[in-house]
Automatic annotation (TrEMBL):
<keyword id="KW-0732">Signal</keyword>
<dbReference type="InterPro" id="IPR050767">
    <property type="entry name" value="Sel1_AlgK"/>
</dbReference>
<dbReference type="Pfam" id="PF08238">
    <property type="entry name" value="Sel1"/>
</dbReference>
<dbReference type="GO" id="GO:0046677">
    <property type="term" value="P:response to antibiotic"/>
</dbReference>
<protein>
    <recommendedName>
        <fullName>beta-lactamase</fullName>
        <ecNumber>3.5.2.6</ecNumber>
    </recommendedName>
</protein>
<dbReference type="InterPro" id="IPR006597">
    <property type="entry name" value="Sel1-like"/>
</dbReference>
<keyword id="KW-0046">Antibiotic resistance</keyword>
<dbReference type="InterPro" id="IPR011990">
    <property type="entry name" value="TPR-like_helical_dom_sf"/>
</dbReference>
<keyword id="KW-1015">Disulfide bond</keyword>
<feature type="signal peptide">
    <location>
        <begin position="1"/>
        <end position="20"/>
    </location>
</feature>
<dbReference type="GO" id="GO:0008800">
    <property type="term" value="F:beta-lactamase activity"/>
</dbReference>
Length: 799
């Protein structure tokens, strides 16, 4: 392949150079598109999103909020799915953005859009609403096209959803559809990384034989990412034989030749790269043209080409920017700045920003350049162009490289007002950048986002006010209350939780649970299932720290029934059963409890089997009622739960084998059951600790007791204390023993264990055991609160 001559470069490359790489498609003026959208033209909404940054600006967000209700009344699904995808992408900007997204998809589905069904299935899956996704998929799968099925297949493959992927694959196989090409390429990665060259080349050949340039170029792109440069070049070349107008393909080949590939023994070859850069440049690829300028500057024999390309580039402002950047990279600062300055005087914003953001060197300070930078910063500060100011602010605040420079300019820029074109996402980024460095600036950016109508900025501002360093509780309340009045459900929930259980570190605050409950009850009265569910948890969970003072079993039972009627999940049946079982808000009725537990179990709530077992079994600590003592029946339920891998059932089944309930005593079987779940079940790990403790295998006992202790079992903490205090591992360690006793005393909800822990601590201080000094005052304090029977005897000795 020969190099193009300088004449060819001049004649071919830069005909119409001023338009190099620019989009020549005409776009309607923004105001016309807004008028069209206001008149129901959904295509105009998409055009505004594509070309005018809607809804990421204050103006765009305003109109997207305005158009939402109108979109719910359209008569055609045309463009509606694509618009819904925009609402999904920016859902956190809107009041109840997620709900809005779902309603738009549902509207499109109502208008017979199968694409909307696919997108809503994907949306449900991404948001962990698997049952809804499954139900919708089962409803529409027979009506989906090959393309729509392929779309779902690719989505599930990318999300590693094996079960859903298998379902779609089975359906596609029945229809005779092939695996989507995009997935086949992704699966090729393993073969590429494992250097299975024959498999890779076979796939390349099959793809080339399709004569589908789109697929071939896609494959070439992937091979390049897999660092299979030789194969990638072969694929690009094959694609270019079919479509020789793909400038990006030529450019990518050039990049591979330029850097080479050591593993593939592909030598870096700038000359070969230049040949492809020339072809890309002929197709008006601007990056290729810029790289050619650099390449031509490196060899004397290419000097004519260098001046030819430079001369033509200098005929347009865009070309001049390429030349200036070339000088920048070469560190010809004076020449670069001269061109930038010329362009800046003509109002070129890119050049103005280049000059205004020149970072001074610590080692080679240039006062003239620094003066030029300050000049253009001052120009921007005095201009009426808010967007230009925002760009300068973004560049100076989004990089740590500027943290020690231009602080005066940054200070002046921070008070910039937002306007109709301000990018809300950039405001968020600027707030995040300053969140820990300069909190006061971060707050200003959050407020600007709020002023632009961004709901996420408001929530971020409230969370920031609640941070341990800010502690502006009342300010956060104001933000949440404003969003609550506007109907945002998430903010309303956050407000309710703040009233019920504010962060522990907040100073000068007063819990107001009645306000939080009132909010939830108001939402519940309007049928909000999440609020009803939260009320059930708050009113029924007397042992939960955030609701122990507001527990109300009657209300809890009332809302449990509402939840059962509206949602009817397995957990809802279990809640009703629990209330009947223990008489929480309703009279005890064990037969009804059994009925509801069995329904919960049938619907997949495996813990219900554990509760059913306790209707036929009791131990010394159990204070509740049972239908009858029937170990065989209890064991049947436990075995059903164990099949579902329910840890509580497995643990209690282990106890049955340990004690010999409805079965012959079998410690080997019990230990095997405990070992299935010991890593995440504090009782199973405790039982194993006991087992090895009795066998005097203290090393193993400590291993399992520690696991149980880490999961909050105070009994395990006490046993560890005893082992260390007695030196059963070899050497007495009273200091460590004391730590475990103190942990048990702090954490135990069992008065007996708490009493034992207090007694053990008191004895250590009473006699000054090990390295702990004698302290009768502390000993007395612990022994006085201990319920352990020996504590009184020890107290008499102190007195």
């Amino acid at each position: 392949m020969k190099f193009l001559s300088s004449i060819a470069i001049t004649l071919l490359l830069f005909t119409g150079c001023a338009n190099l790489g620019l989009n020549t498609n005409k776009v309607k003026p923004k105001q016309e598109l807004i008028e069209d959208a206001n008149n129901g033209n959904t295509k105009a909404i998409l055009a505004l999103a594509k070309n005018y940054n809607f809804p990421k600006t204050k103006e765009g967000l305003y109109y997207f909020n305005k158009w939402y209700e109108e979109l719910l009344n359209v008569k055609s699904s045309e463009n509606l799915t694509e618009i819904a995808k925009i609402y999904e992408e920016y859902n956190d900007m809107f009041i109840n953005g997620k709900e809005k997204t779902v309603k738009l998809y549902e509207k499109a589905i109502e208008l017979n859009s199968k694409d909307a069904s696919v997108e809503l299935i994907k949306y449900y899956t991404k948001n962990y609403k698997y049952e809804k996704a499954k139900a919708l998929q089962e409803k529409v799968i027979d009506e989906l096209s090959e393309k729509q099925l392929a779309d779902l297949y690719i989505f599930y493959n990318d999300k590693y959803k094996k079960e859903q992927l298998a379902t779609i694959k089975e359906f596609m196989d029945k229809k005779g559809y092939k695996e989507p090409f995009e997935v086949a390429i992704k699966n090729l990665r393993r073969a590429a990384y494992q250097n299975k060259d024959s498999e890779v080349n076979s796939f390349i050949n099959e793809t080339i034989d399709t004569k589908d340039s789109k697929k071939i170029f896609l494959l070439a792109d992937k091979l390049k990412r897999f660092y299979k440069y030789k194969e990638s070049i072969r694929a690009y070349e094959a694609g270019l034989k079919i479509d020789n107008t793909n400038a990006q393909a030529y450019y990518k080949i050039a990049k591979m030749y330029k850097i080479g590939n050591y593993k593939q023994k592909l030598k870096a070859d700038k000359d070969e790269a230049a040949k492809y850069l020339e072809k890309a440049a002929l197709l008006k690829h601007k990056e290729a043209a810029a790289e050619l300028l650099k390449y031509y500057s490196e060899k004397p024999e290419l000097m004519d080409k260098f001046f030819a390309i430079k001369s033509k580039l200098e005929e347009s402002n865009e070309g001049k920017l390429f030349v200036a950047r070339y000088y920048d990279k070469k560190r010809y600062d004076q020449k670069a700045n001269a061109i930038y300055n010329e362009l800046a005087k003509d109002g070129n914003k890119e050049a103005i920003l280049e000059l205004a953001t020149k970072k001074p060197s610590k080692y080679n300070f240039n006062p003239e350049e620094y003066k030029l930078t300050l000049k253009w910063q001052d120009y921007i500060l005095k201009s009426d162009d808010i967007e230009l100011k925002k760009e300068l602010e973004k560049k100076l605040t989004s990089s740590y490289g500027y943290r020690d420079y231009f602080n005066e300019t940054k200070e002046k820029l921070k008070d910039l007002p937002t306007n109709e074109k301000t990018d809300i996402l950039e405001l968020r980024k600027s707030a995040l950048y300053n969140k820990y460095r300069k909190p006061e600036i971060a707050i200003e950016y959050y407020k600007k986002g709020v002023a632009a109508g961004d709901v996420k900025s408001a929530k971020n501002l409230a969370r920031f006010y609640l941070s341990s360093k800010q502690q502006k509780y009342n300010e956060a309340i104001k933000v949440y209350e404003d969003l609550h009045k506007r109907g945002d459900l998430e903010a309303t929930r956050l407000l309710a939780e703040l009233y019920i259980n504010p962060p522990y570190y907040l100073k000068d605050f007063k819990k107001e649970p009645e306000k939080g409950l009132a909010i939830y009850e108001d939402l519940a009265s309007k049928g909000n299932i999440d609020s009803i569910n939260r009320l059930v948890n708050l009113y029924l969970c007397g042992s939960c720290k955030d609701s122990e003072s507001i527990v109300n079993y009657k209300k809890g039972f009332k809302y449990s029934k509402e939840l059962l009627e509206k949602r009817g999940s397995a957990r809802d049946y279990a809640n009703i059963a629990w209330s009947y079982h223990y008489g929480k808000g309703v009279d005890i009725d064990l037969l009804k409890a059994k009925e509801y537990y069995e329904e919960a179990a049938k619907r997949g709530y495996a813990s219900a089997y554990y509760n059913l077992a306790w209707l036929y079994y009791k131990n010394d600590d159990y204070k509740g009622q049972i239908i009858e003592l029937n170990y065989e029946k209890a064991k049947e339920y436990l075995e059903l739960g164990a099949k579902e891998r329910n840890s509580a059932c497995i643990n209690l089944l282990g106890v049955f084998y340990k004690k010999g309930y409805a079965v012959k005593k079998d410690m080997e079987k019990a230990v095997a059951l405990f070992k299935i779940i010991y890593r995440y079940d504090r009782y199973a790990s405790f039982h194993l600790g006991e087992y090895y403790n009795e066998k005097k295998d203290y090393k193993e006992a400590v291993k399992y007791y520690k696991i149980s202790d880490e999961r909050g079992n105070a009994g395990a903490s006490i046993e560890l204390g005893v082992i260390y205090e007695k030196g059963l591992l070899g050497k007495k360690d009273v200091k460590t023993a004391l730590k475990y006793y103190e942990k048990a005393f702090r954490n135990s909800e069992d008065e007996t264990q708490k009493g034992i822990a207090a007694y053990n601590i008191g004895i250590i201080y009473q006699y000054g055991k090990g390295e702990i000094e004698k302290d009768l005052k502390k000993a007395k304090a612990y022994l006085e609160v201990s319920t352990y029977k020996k504590a009184k005897t020890q107290l008499k000795l102190i007195k």
